[in-house]
């Protein structure tokens, strides 16, 4: 067989196709999700390759120009290029969402491990606090926190992170409680392993697997919460390009027919959230088909 | 399943049954706005929309006629000033009665002023800072004794906290929020209209007051509809559901409506000004040369073009256009976007392209509308266009802003001003007088300036006052405690058949002359 | 039955620490937030001493612990206090806004349920077929659309381009709420006074906001219904019914769906929080005068009592809905023991 790009591609793709046959829809969902995320990550890392203008440049062309020609997605009222702002905006939202998910997973997992393992009064108090926060509408809490912390990238990240701690806490605590009773943990204890060793070596590795799925879904949620906060105006200074802020700014042009100012930033938020959700759903179904159906 | 059917049925009913709303026999004007009424009590109301309603249901001792900026007699026929300038005696109109029969006389005026002073409501300082006490001279003469001579006292008397209210229906010791808390439950004053129904954030219905002494309004009823957002308000004007809209539409809506053939636009210079404040007693802006450099670099027309689609007017002095003594001071001193001058000034302080002058410019994101973030972004671009400045734009909610200026964390910040009374004093001493300046975070203090402000406050000769304020505006471009950006233009849009709308920089908007033509 | 009563009492008692914890977190968060209600209202114009005097009157200069205990005592007496910004009882403000939010969420929920349950059941019936895949994809995609953007796009399409539906508010400008308002639930009010043109106006104003909320949340219900239906459809009695030759359609949409509905109902209880968050965002997009807008407005003004009152009401709604759902579940399914 002679080498040709088509052949090479077919050969490269064949394992993917095989997996697709094996797992069906789940596999495709996972794959599409991964591709979306990858594409937006590349965009965020090399914005210069995609954006023709500086996102703050107020002289890219006429004011409020509809999409087309040299302005793929048109211009806004400050003569800025919407597409370039979309490209640079991907950095902000990705950074905040992922960092928030890392922060909340880190604190949620550690608290969950400690609480589940130690039990007693600490466990009861922590559980009560976490449950109270868990059942309350997260966005509303995030609004209060964002208002307190004031505008800024890190402050928004914190506000988003706080509301997801209970999700990890509950998951990890529950698992810790059951794993703690397992025979091998008992065995480790009987040979004199310290509490820390037991937590770190025996419990943590068993808990971490399920949190991966939750983490991915959490990033998707964090994306939407971050955009919601900046859309509500509780967020970032204008020196930072952000999709939610652009959406809020475009909102006032709705009746004048400048549809591109709201359509594109909103679509991008949806697509990015969709990427992470699809990845998470796909992972969940493949790793543990019953997880999400329950 | 049954519920679904029912639901769909209801939806169908709706589409079939929907009829345009009620119609009125009397001539009713529907006025749409996005403003809010806070408290319907002259002792506590401190916002221009509530004041506007008061202009129509009450009357001051002195008043501004529709569309004019000079005072004419209102409930008072005339007044005398004592030679030391500290006593103002008003001769009241005779034979006026509140609707319940209570006569309007000097004791009613004294009662109302005493009530405002005792209740200590939000705007009460407009009385207490100036008035020492009020004396009843005789039934139809009342004397205000001031703490210090104040040359603009007549314009204070025309403001809402000075409005006489009916002593028999207003509670003496309580601020009322709703007409329902009044004795009798009806809000009736001595003005051309009375309030017949009030539904907070939804509507106010006003009808002509039959007991009004002055010219009868040309319509029977005015309904103010409160809209939660500008977009819906604009659409409902275009659909003909409201007769006119006033305050506040988005720039994009204004620009569309101005082009529309379906509605008419009424424009007027507003009293509202926007400017950048500098923290004058701390580095970096302790140095007036740096303040001058910022003032030189900003470019007003393109800013208005970008952010407000060309609306509003560039402003070159703290005293607004349309007010006596206004001069285009900043225009002659710096011009617009004078990058060469800005660079030169910065160079004299050792700043170059490699060693940039860095500072933070603050704005507040919702208090001045959602265009504010754009104003900040454009200013940043214009200042950085010099190549010698690097601006870090920061924001804080309004509730935090004041703490920030008290704690001196904002070197430069955007503010806006609606006047408390119509006089150049309120546009100058409030910013550069030692006391006023501290209250607003500028912390500018200069004994020579303070002396001039006192002179302006006490001088009664109009010519001397004018030249004094012109001089202050000149000095402003040297010291630059603030640098002005623009003055708000009032935009009112009405249906084509509406006549008689007169806007004025005093924001006294009278409903009386408005009517429909066939 | 005695068990159930005890369970209900325990659950009700358990909501108290929950509300208390949320309130405490919020109290601390708000007082640490820079800015205060007096500055928010008077900042800029009134002289410094006026502001200080007002703060003193409102008790804002006392130590935080005292303010906190004072507030708790007040709440214990079921008093939410008075707004620090407007002369208004917090309960009045909430009573004005709550019906609007409930009306919106109620219709949003109905739309969600119909879309979600029927699509989910259909997908389960057509398991592993193209319809199933399409509906599952719909569920995922619709879940990822931010509710405010969905609202904006619907406004753009139906309000601006097609120009057939109003895009904001609860009534049109020529319909006067004061002529019919009694309970605050406008649909109910207009029916009570038999003002059908106003009813029509109120209903067309509800269409876009409730559809926005309903569409976005339907994704979750598609998934829940599908999963539950899959379980039920595998059950013996369904297979038996099938064997007896009952029409397939009837089996799926009557018998199976009825049985799958109870777990769906309990899941619904868990989604109330999501529904509330969705409502807050829908309200801002559609200028709907409800609790969400109240909360946001007052956060900007730092109106502490109103913010705290609003949060308490939200917490109570979430707690009571999940309680009601649990009770219904316990009554409907006698196998559950507490």
What labels would you give this structure?
heterotrimer, A: 294 residues, mainly alpha, MetI-like fold, 0% strand, C: 338 residues, 77% helix, globular
Overview of the molecule:
The complex is a heterotrimer of chains A (294), B (518) and C (338). Helix content of chain A is 74%, strand content 0%. Chain A is mainly α and 294 residues long. Chain A has a single domain (22-292), classed as MetI-like (MetI-like fold), CATH 1.10.3720.10. The longest helix of chain A has 37 residues, at 82-118. The N and C termini of chain A lie far apart (49 Å). Chain B has helices spanning 2-17, 48-57, 106-119, 125-128, 153-157, 230-238, 251-259, 288-297, 300-307, 329-333, 339-347, 372-384, 398-406, 424-432, 434-439, 447-458, 462-479, and strands spanning 28-33, 62-63, 72-73, 76-81, 87-92, 131-138, 141-146, 187-188, 193-199, 203-208, 221-226, 244-246, 263-278, 313-314, 357-363, 389-395, 412-417, 482-495, 498-499, 515-516. In chain B, a hairpin with a 5-residue loop joins β4 (76-81) and β5. Chain C starts with a helix and ends in a 6-residue tail after the last helix. Helix content of chain C is 77%, strand content 0%. Chain C is an all-alpha fold and 338 residues long. The interface between B and C is large, with 61 and 53 residues.
């Amino acid at each position: 067989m002679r080498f040709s790009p088509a052949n090479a591609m077919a050969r490269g793709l064949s394992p993917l196709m095989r997996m697709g046959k094996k797992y069906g829809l789940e596999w495709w969902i996972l794959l599409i999700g991964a591709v979306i995320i990858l594409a937006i990550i590349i965009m965020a890392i090399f914005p210069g390759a995609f954006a023709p203008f500086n996102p703050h440049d107020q002289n890219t062309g006429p004011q409020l120009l509809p999409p087309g020609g040299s302005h793929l997605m048109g211009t806004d009222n400050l003569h800025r290029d919407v597409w370039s702002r979309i490209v640079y905006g991907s950095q902000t939202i990705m950074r905040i969402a992922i960092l928030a998910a890392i922060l909340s997973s880190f604190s949620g997992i550690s608290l969950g491990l400690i609480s589940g393992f130690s039990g007693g009064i600490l466990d009861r108090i922590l559980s009560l606090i976490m449950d109270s926060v868990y059942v309350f509408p997260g966005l509303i809490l995030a609004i209060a926190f964002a208002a307190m912390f004031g505008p800024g990238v890190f402050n928004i990240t914190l506000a988003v992170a706080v509301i997801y701690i209970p999700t990890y806490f509950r998951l990890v605590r529950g698992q810790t409680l059951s794993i703690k009773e397992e025979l091998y943990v008992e065995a480790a204890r009987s040979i004199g392993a310290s509490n820390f060793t037991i937590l770190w070596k025996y419990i943590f590795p068993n808990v971490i697997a399920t949190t991966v799925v939750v983490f991915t879904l959490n990033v998707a949620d964090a994306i939407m919460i971050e955009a919601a906060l900046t859309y509500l105006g509780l967020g970032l200074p204008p020196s930072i390009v952000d999709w939610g802020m652009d959406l809020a700014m475009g909102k006032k042009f709705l009746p004048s027919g400048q549809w591109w100012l709201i359509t594109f930033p909103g679509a991008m938020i949806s697509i990015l959230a969709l990427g992470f959700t699809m990845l998470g759903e796909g992972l969940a179904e493949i790793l543990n088909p019953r997880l999400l159906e329950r | 399943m049954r519920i679904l059917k029912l639901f769909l049925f209801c939806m169908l009913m709706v589409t079939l049954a929907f009829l345009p709303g009620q119609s009125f026999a009397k001539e009713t004007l529907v006025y749409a706005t996005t403003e809010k009424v806070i408290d319907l009590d002259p002792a506590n109301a401190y916002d221009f929309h509530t004041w506007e309603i008061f202009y129509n249901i009450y009357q001051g001792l002195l008043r501004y006629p529709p569309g004019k900026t000079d005072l004419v007699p209102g409930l008072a026929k005339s007044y005398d000033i004592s030679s030391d300038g500290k006593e103002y005696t008003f001769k009241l109109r005779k034979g006026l009665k509140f609707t319940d029969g209570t006569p309007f006389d000097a004791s009613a005026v004294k009662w109302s002023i005493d009530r405002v002073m005792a209740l200590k409501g939000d705007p009460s300082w407009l009385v207490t800072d100036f008035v020492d006490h009020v004396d009843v001279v005789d039934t139809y003469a009342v004397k205000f004794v001031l703490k210090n001579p104040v040359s603009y006292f007549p314009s204070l008397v025309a403001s809402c906290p000075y409005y006489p209210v009916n002593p028999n229906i207003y509670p003496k010791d309580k601020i009322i929020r709703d007409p329902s808390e009044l004795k009798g439950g009806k809000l009736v004053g001595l003005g051309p209209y009375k309030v017949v129904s009030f539904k907070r954030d939804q509507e106010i219905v006003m009808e002509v007051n039959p007991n009004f002494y002055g010219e009868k309004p040309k319509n029977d009823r005015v309904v103010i509809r409160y809209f939660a957002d500008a977009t819906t308000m604009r659409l409902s004007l275009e659909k003909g559901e409201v007769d006119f809209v006033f305050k506040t539409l988005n720039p994009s809506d204004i620009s569309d409506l101005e082009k529309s053939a379906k509605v008419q636009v009424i424009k007027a210079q507003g009293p509202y000004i926007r400017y950048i404040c500098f923290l004058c007693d701390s580095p970096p802006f302790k140095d007036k040369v740096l303040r001058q450099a910022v003032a030189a670099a900003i470019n007003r027309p393109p800013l208005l073009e970008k952010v407000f689609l060309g609306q509003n007017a560039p402003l070159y002095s703290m005293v607004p256009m349309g007010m006596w003594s206004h001069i285009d001071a900043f225009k002659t001193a710096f011009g617009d976007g004078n990058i060469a001058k800005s660079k030169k000034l910065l160079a004299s302080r050792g700043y170059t392209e490699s060693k940039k002058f860095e500072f933070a410019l603050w704005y507040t994101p919702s208090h001045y509308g959602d265009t504010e973030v754009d104003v900040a972004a454009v200013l940043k671009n214009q200042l950085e266009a010099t190549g010698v400045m690097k601006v870090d734009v920061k924001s804080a909610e309004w509730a935090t802003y004041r703490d920030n200026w008290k704690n001196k964390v904002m070197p430069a910040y955007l503010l806006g001003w609606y006047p408390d009374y119509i006089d150049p004093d309120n546009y100058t001493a409030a910013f550069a007088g030692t006391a006023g300046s501290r209250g607003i975070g500028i912390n500018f203090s200069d004994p020579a300036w303070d002396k001039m402000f006192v002179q302006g406050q006490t001088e009664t000769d109009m010519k001397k006052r004018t030249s004094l304020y012109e001089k202050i505006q000149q000095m402003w471009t040297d010291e630059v405690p603030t640098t002005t950006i623009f003055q708000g233009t009032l935009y009112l849009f009405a249906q084509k058949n509406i006549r008689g709308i007169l806007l004025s920089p005093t924001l006294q908007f009278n409903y009386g002359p408005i009517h429909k033509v066939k | 039955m005695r068990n159930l009563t005890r369970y209900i009492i325990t659950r009700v008692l358990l909501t108290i620490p929950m509300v208390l914890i949320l309130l405490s977190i919020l109290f601390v968060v708000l007082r640490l937030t820079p800015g205060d209600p007096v500055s928010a209202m008077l900042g800029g114009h009134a002289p410094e001493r006026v502001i200080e005097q007002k703060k003193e009157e409102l008790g804002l200069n006392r130590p935080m612990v005292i303010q906190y205990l004072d507030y708790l005592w007040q709440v214990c007496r079921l008093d939410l206090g008075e707004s620090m910004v407007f002369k208004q009882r917090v309960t009045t403000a909430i009573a004005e806004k709550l019906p609007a939010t409930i009306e919106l969420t109620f219709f949003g929920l109905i739309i969600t349920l119909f879309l979600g349950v029927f699509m989910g059941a259909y997908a389960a019936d057509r398991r592993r077929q193209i319809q199933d895949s399409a509906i599952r994809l719909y569920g995922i995609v619709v879940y990822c659309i931010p509710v405010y953007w969905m609202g904006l796009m619907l406004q753009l399409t139906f309000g601006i381009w097609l120009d057939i539906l109003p895009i904001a508010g609860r009534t049109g400008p020529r319909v006067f709420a004061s002529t019919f308002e009694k309970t605050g639930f406008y649909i109910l009010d207009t029916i009570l006074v038999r003002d059908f043109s106003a009813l029509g106006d109120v209903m067309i104003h509800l269409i876009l906001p409730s559809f926005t909320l309903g569409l976005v949340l339907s994704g979750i219900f598609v998934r829940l219904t599908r999963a539950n239906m899959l379980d039920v459809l595998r059950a013996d009695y369904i297979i038996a019914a099938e064997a007896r030759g009952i029409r397939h359609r009837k089996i799926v949409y009557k018998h199976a769906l009825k049985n799958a509905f109870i777990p769906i109902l309990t899941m619904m209880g868990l989604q109330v929080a999501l529904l509330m968050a969705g409502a807050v965002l829908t309200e801002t997009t559609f200028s709907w005068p409800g609790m969400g807008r109240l909360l946001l407005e007052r956060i900007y003004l730092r109106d502490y009592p109103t913010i705290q009152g609003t949060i308490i009401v939200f917490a109570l709604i979430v707690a009571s809905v999940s309680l009601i759902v649990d009770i219904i579940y316990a009554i409907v399914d006698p196998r559950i023991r507490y």
